[in-house]
Write a structure and sequence with these properties.
about 210 residues, alpha/beta, 6-stranded mixed β-sheet, 7 helices, about 15% strand, globular, 2,3-bisphosphoglycerate-dependent phosphoglycerate mutase, glycolysis
Amino acid sequence: MERLLVLVRHGQSEWNLQNLFTGWRDPDLTERGIAEARAAGRGLKRDGYGFDVAFTSELLRAQRTCSLILEEMALPDVPIIRQRALNERDYGDLSGLNKDAARARWGDAQVHTWRRSYDVRPPGGESLKDTAARVLPYYIAAILPRVMAGQRVLVAAHGNSLRALAMVLDGLNEEQVPDLQIRTGVPLVYRLNGDTTVASKIVLEQDVDAGR
């Protein structure tokens, strides 16, 4: 039984490129982001992975990443489940603001706290703790049972929703998880033990420019 779980943060979005707080806003992928998603699919196919089901958020950048990965893997019939619980962290009043402009307005320390602390919310938004409070119950109820039943599962989502998952999978505490970086378009390949703990983890590095 494989118990395969692959997490992929969406490829670069238009607002990533513009250095904007994105949250639940819905920009598309850039050309670079499309290339990152396709490279992830090529790498997964090259290394012999396959999927029985895919999960993604309700946001376009994650959905397109998921579809492009499956397209590159020649897996058009894999069912895709879209779920709001996997959405990016809601940045509230910061959404749409340039990060450098936010630092100029509120100061480096305050913006760093909003971005990287575990339980401090930006104005009108969610903390990472809030994000985990919706991601983890959905993972336990809907995603983990499929993995434990032997299905090969892809989750294409966002930096913070995946950080919430990786916190549990990698056994990180509240002080460690804010420093966890999840790069766009780089698959994290987990295999789980029978008790749901992690048996192995591979970071599947990609050459984005190889297929362009």
